[in-house]
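Project standup — Tuesday

K.O.: blocked on the structure for the chain from last sprint. Re-posting the sequence here as requested.
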Amino acid sequence: MPPRTARLAAPIVVLAVVSGLAACGGSGAKEDDGPTARAKVEHAIAQRFAAQGVRLTGVACADGVKVEADAPLACTGRNPSGTKLVLRGTITAVKGDTVSFRVRAVGGVAEGRVIASQVLVLVRKRLGSDARSLTCPATIRLPTEPSVTCALVKADGRTYDVATVIGADSRVQLRVAARPR
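H.V.: unblocked you, prediction finished:
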């Protein structure tokens, strides 16, 4: 049977929650390089993602943020479902007291239970009420290429492997094994 492809809803679209990986641009007040500059950039990143409907908490950028054009940004943040996102970007311009930047989520680590609940919705669309439960590894790196194996328990109590791929574009491919374990 060919793999089933579908787009997931909000919690996995983590990378917007993996939205073609979320991207944003923004600006903030310029400060000297160092902890104050980093804190202002972190706050501005959280605000820009929130403006796109992706609430991030605990945004943290690497030490040594240089407030100059073309300076790289390497940060992390968490979405409401607990997925830790890896954010990468660049300061695009510095004009007076204003710093402009672009940043996007390039990967992340999700809790397996969050991924399992979203994948189970898709499996149920395919198999109907025959799908009882689904479990995945405790943590899952996003995107998941080539795949991660989750365990599907059907109504008859038998367990089947489900090869799951969540791409960088948030598309999900599922392949349910033809035979039980």
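K.O.: great, moving the ticket to review. The chain has two domains: 4-12+111-176, 23-108. Residues 1-23 have pLDDT under 50 and may be disordered.
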